[in-house]
Input
Amino acid sequence: SSGINAEWPLRPGPNLYFIWNRMFSELNAFDEDFSPQSMLDMGHNLGAAVWAVQEFYSESIIDYVVHEHNRDEYDRTVKVLNNKYKPYIPNVTVKGSFS
Output
């Protein structure tokens, strides 16, 4: 086995990262003076928007909030965004609401 997971490109996580990255790229090209100070990432995918926004607005964003609705995604997001993996993103709060 090559160790490559054939399902990986079909999962929402990587695809959402690239979608967010493209959106921030276009926003940055449209308004180079845009300088957000906070970000709310609602949904899942290990804070994909938080990872993508770093390439464009890491100097201006002071606070990030990631809100997960799924317990498993919440647990993974906490591990990923709270310095279990690099690069470390400061000032990230992960919240959750589970039914």
The first strand starts at residue 38 and ends at 42. The chain is about 45% helix and 15% strand.
